TrEMBL record:
Lineage: Bacteria, Bacillati, Actinomycetota, Actinomycetes, Micrococcales
The species this protein was found in: Brachybacterium aquaticum
The entry's keywords: ATP-binding, Nucleotide-binding, Transport
Keyword ATP-binding: yes
Family, similarity comment: Belongs to the ABC transporter superfamily.
Transmembrane residue ranges: none
ABC transporter domain residues: 16-234
This protein's record includes keyword Coiled coil: no
UniProt GO molecular function: ABC-type transporter activity; ATP binding; ATP hydrolysis activity
Protein name: Teichoic acid transport system ATP-binding protein
GO cellular component: a single term: membrane
Region Disordered, annotated ranges: 254-309
Pfam families assigned: ABC_tran
Biased amino acid composition, Basic and acidic residues: 293-309
Amino acid sequence: MRYQTPRTDRTPSKTLRGRLTRRQMVSVAAVRGVSFTARSGEFIGIIGRNGSGKSTLLRVLAGLEAPTSGTVLTSAKPMLLGVSAALIPDLTGAQNITLGGLAMGLSPGQVEEMFEPVVELSALGDAIDLPMRTYSSGMAARLKFAISLGADPSILMIDEALSTGDATFAERSKRAMDDMLARAGTVFLVNHAAQTIENMCSRAIWMERGRIVLDGDAVEVARKYRWFAHNLAQGDEEKAASLLHDAMEEGAEERRLTELQFEDPATQDPPSQGRRRWREIPELEPDPFMRVFARDSEEKTFPSDRAPR
Ligand SMILES: Nc1ncnc2c1ncn2[C@@H]1O[C@H](COP(=O)(O)OP(=O)(O)OP(=O)(O)O)[C@@H](O)[C@H]1O
């Protein structure tokens, strides 16, 4: 994903006019070379430093921005938690639930059905009948989160919203998302706190400068990212750079191994000895296992069959 953005030149110029007119368009590669498959039931955390491309990736996945190149294929319309655009500060929380539901494309009947569960999940109590402009950022985030889940999306994307909720809300939201995952949904969560990713997600993607560094088990990836971020925060840039380098190499190797499983034979390099061995497997008949099971069940005699009657 590339953005074209104006940039001013700060090199000294004699006149103000000269400084103002010395603007040029630059291209920012926000996300590049990113490729992965998300499966149903996965809770995927996206971590990385500021500006590493996390939010851009979510926006592209959600279809809010068209990628400059590449394709996003989804089995359902992803819902990016951020119905805020549709919510109105002067309306009460309750009125905004209706508005948000309709903005997400639900019918009036569906909005009515989701109303009580959303009020309950938001846990706003009496504040649900107060104008939203009186809410703290955490309260507003809770309402937005509850409205998004109320629409029962099969792909939900959350950009930081959970970090503003308190501990009780974190617990409730975790339960609500677990329910969603149990119904074969997929959740993406962008969060700076590697610990949150570690606690909540099953898989984590670590991004740096628009690229994927590591993609794998949430605990493993989040811990590696934390160690990298810790060294960076301590000012040990050399160590952080070498950790990043190691992680990138590990990630590249993982991707190479995954590609070996899926790659198109027509576009492959000549096979090495090891890989050729896999190619030499003859074409199997359809459903060979079914035949084995069928034979088994024909021949099988159970002890009770042999027992005298
Ligand atoms: N609309 C835009 N126009 C130009 N550049 C942009 C735009 N949006 C994002 N960028 C750039 O793309 C890069 C990735 O930004 P993005 O917001 O995706 O990062 P992020 O990882 O979500 O950051 P943060 O953790 O700070 O939220 C940054 O260099 C940013 O400056």
